[in-house]
Amino acid sequence: MTTDADLKDVRAWLLAEHHETVDADRLGHVRAELQRIVADGVRGAVVELGCYRGAMTLWMRCVLDACGDDRPIHVYDSFEGLPETTEEDEIVMPSGLFTSSPADLLAVFAAWDRRPPHVHPGWFEDTLAGRLPDRIAFGYLDGDLYASTLVSLTQCVPRLQPGGALIIDDYTDPGARPGAVAPFPGVKAACDAYFGAPSPVETLPGDVAYGRYRRRD
């Protein structure tokens, strides 16, 4: 059984060893959302789109374990780094950035003796339509770029169960947070293209950008 002390230890390790991809706010938002979903009895799998080396994946597994919830986690990543940027991204990022491997992810889980997720290597456009679970309770979307975020929303939102939620990494809404810098503007552009206006994506508080979409019906 995972205890609060165990979660504290994992949190401290993640912040020390994986600070480039997680922070205290991210971990807090994900924990609160997963705890709510378990408490509310929302059915469906937990998915992560863009897992890199598995820091957030490990955190989600530990939070679920602490809740006594053994539902599976499915992760999707090219493991080849970022694809090419498009004009909607308004930035140029070197393709191949954030390259990792399934072995990197599994090593993170082995270090904490946790049940590993189901790993689905490949580009989102090749894997999501056929490999996402039919029902999703929670998704952590970390595609960084416009095209990756758009295909993530297109495939995840219809599968999201009532009461389910998506946390969208790098979502920045300058209208909700005046003066906020959008390091990956393609993420909000993709959300706007998918949802239209007014956007149902909420800007979450914190020093780094993230948004949340909940299915209300």
Describe this entry's structure for a reader:
- The structure is a single chain.
- The protein is an alpha/beta fold.
- It has one domain (4-214): Rossmann fold (3-Layer(aba) Sandwich), CATH 3.40.50.150.
- Helix content is 38%, strand content 17%.
- It is built from 7 helices and 7 strands; from the N terminus they run ααβαβαβαβαβαββ.
- The protein has helices at 4-17, 24-40, 55-66, 102-111, 124-131, 146-156, 185-195, and strands at 45-49, 73-77, 118-121, 136-141, 160-169, 202-203, 210-214.
- The chain has a 7-stranded mixed sheet, with helices on both faces.
- α1 packs antiparallel against α3 (55-66) and α2 (24-40) packs parallel to α3 (55-66).
- The protein is globular and about 45 Å long.
- The relative contact order is 0.16.
